[in-house]
Structures are given as C-alpha cells and as structure tokens.
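Hello support,

Our group uses your service weekly, and this is the first time we've seen a run hang past the timeout. The protein is UDP-glycosyltransferase. I'm not sure whether the cause is the sequence or the server load. Input pasted verbatim:
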Amino acid sequence: MNKKIFVFFPDGVGLRNFAFTQFKEIGEARGNQIVYWNNTVFSLKQELGYDEVKIENHKIHKLTPIYTRIRKHIELNVSQKKFNDEVYPTYKFPFSYKGIKNSLVSVFSKIMIGFHSSEKGILRIRKRINELERSTDKYQYCRAQLLEHKPDLVFCTTQRASQSIGALLAAQDLGIPTVGFVYSWDNVPKAMQLIETDYYCVWSDLMKAEVLKYYPFVKENQVIVTGTPQFEPHFDTSLSQSREEFCLENNLDSAKKYICYSGDDETTSPLDQYYLEDLAIAIRNLNSKGRNLAVIYRKCPVDTTARYDAILEKYKDVVVSLDPLWKSQGKNWNEILPTKADLKALYNVCQHSELVTNVCSSTVFDFVAHGKPCIYYNYEQPQLKKGIRDIGQNYKYVHFRSMPSPEAAVFCTDKKELENLVQKILDNELSNVSEGQKWFEIVASPNPTHASNQIWNAIETILK
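Update from on-call engineer: The timeout came from a worker crash unrelated to the input. Re-ran successfully.
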C-alpha cells in the first residue's frame, strides 16, 4: 500500500501499546510508512530510533480544560437521567472553592452545566471546545506540520487527552482521515471521550455497544472492534525468564512462593497501603504454619506518594518491592512514562507469582492471561473517615457489570478471610481463572494476540 500513517501520541499513555509492542513492525511489514506524531516529552527517535515529528507547541486554549470538565459533568447527568442509574454521579470529582479564581470557575461551570444538561447541550459544548481549539496557535502549528508531511491518515492512540483536540481538528479540516483508539476498559461509561474522529477502534463488542449507547452522534460503521495491544506482550514467550534468572535479577529467593500485591493510585484506593499490610500479616501467619511465602509489591507506576514506606519497612521480612520500570520525564503524573523493559518485567512478575491481589485493577487480566488467580479487596479499612473515598464504590462502576459471574475474581469481603483465601488458592481449592478468562474475552475480545493486526486491517480498510 505504501501509505504514510501518523501514529499520534497526545500523551504518554499510548507508548506501551503502540511503540513498545510489535505494532510498528507489523504495520511496516504490510508496506506502510509509520511516523510517530509526538506530543510527549519522550523522544522516540533518541530512545528507539523511530521516525518522529515532534509537536513542540503544547498550549491548548486556557478555557478548554474548563469546558472539557463541563462536558464530562453534562454527559454524566444525561446518562444518569437516560438510564435511571445513580452510578454516574459517582464518576464526578467535586468542584473546588479554594480561592477566588477556583470559586469563579466552579460557579461558571455549574451555571453552564445547568443550562446545557441535554443531548443537544452536549453537542453545543463539544462545538464550543472545537471553536476554542481551532483558535489556538497550536492548531495552526499542527496544521502546518500536516501540510509539510502529508500523512494519509492520523491514528490517535488515546481518546481522552485534551492535547489531541486541536491536532485532530487540523487533520480533519485538511481532509485527512482520523482514527481514535479507546484506551482503557472503563473509559466509555465514565464520559472520557474527548475526541471526535472519523473512526474509532475499540477492544470488544462490549465496548462498541458502549460507544454507540453513550455517543448517539457516532454511527455504527464508525466503530471497529480490534482488541487492544495492551495484553499482547503476555503471549510473547520471548519475554519469559527462567525462575532462577528472574530471582537472581530481582534479589528474590527461588525457594519461596511469591504473591503479587499490585498497588493502586491514590484516587482509586486512598488507603491502599493498609491492604498491603493485611496481606503481609496473612503471609506471616501462613509462614508460622510452615509455608515459605513472600509478597512482591509492584506499585502503581504513577503513584509518587510515600504512603507505603512505613509498611514496607515494618514488613520487610515478607515484602519485597519491585518497582515498575517507568521513567519520570517531568513533574506531572502524566509525564511518568512506561519503558519497553517494563513489558518483560510485568510478564515475569505474572509468570513467577502464584496469584495477584489488588483493589479493582485491570491486572486481573494480566494475571489470568498467565493462568493466575486474582483476589480483589472489598472491605472497608478502620482508617476510613469522612472525606476519604471508600473503595467499595469502585465495584459498582459500569465496567464491573461486564463480569460473566461473581466468580470472575475472588472477592475478599472481610479482612479475617484473607489468610484462608490465599491458602485455598495455594492449595488449588479456589480459583477464578476459568471465569476470569471468560471475563477477559468479554472485555478484551477473544483474540488478544491479534489486536495489532486487526488495527492495521482497520486502517487499511479505511484508506481503501
């Protein structure tokens, strides 16, 4: 075909899926020229030797963040009314009234939300955001880059970044086809679709149905089910290390059985460190009964807090910290970026752990891909007080309704049960793997190894 495809990174979240997997090699083998249109601080040219066009102008319109938040609130209001469901308000973050500026913005936002909470109102706000972004220097800057490099198609690696709006509008205004990839399994019901592209690539039939349900202005032929490259590395056996090699590299004891504790971000699980402590206590108890166990703590890559430090020190006899191999490229959470080396690190943590435990994370899918069970914590901590979010609301979110049965994960609903659940899993008396794999198929499609190929099929079909 020999077409030039701009693979667009408005931020770093897509790097893992579209720079570190086989996505580029597969596209090139099919005769496409791939250029990374790069709005991140990560240099694909320096780090990986990839052809890139850097976007140096990062200035979106100063009102865009305000209007995108207004849009999100309105979409959630419409969903709440339309589907008669109280889950949607729980996706909202409270407005701030700290200081005059925040108070004025919050009052303005609430007035706008009040006047526009309808399907037509959503379209008006989206139109306003597009007008704001078309008026920026960034829009003109991106337009000039597109005129210079003349791509045949722009493929945007995430649907949720405000940094992408102006660039994609510039492409559409020049008649260049645009495709957006819906980045995460929970994004559609949470009103996180900022971009409007000509086509959308989604993980599964479930996600396609969601896009059409929540965005009536999107037509069925615009949504293409491709799967996600996110899980492809788990099926790449070239990443596998032997037990000895893995333990030697990470200073682990190969005689021990390891349970992975996968950390969460502070918003999702503000008391996450105490669940790690509960696991450490359970493991100490099991060891006192003759087991030889330890915990691998793998923190959430974008968690920069010190909230686990005291627990890690107190339980260092049974907890080993293996940090994700991500690199901080700036001060903000979205400038902590993945590395290619971390794909191998995660593969081997999954392979050499007996199970994973966490609060509502998609790592359930990483582990069931390796045939390993998952325990979800679903009980309150005594440290819970007013103003701290209870993790229980996470399991009420729409994306958890995709479970084929409650057995798709092992739920720990009482701290006193944790030790017993771990023991039962270790003794092969309890597992969520078969139901978890069915859930994985529902969420990520039945062919998780074919996603990159399917996306290239979609791109080539669009270009024809």
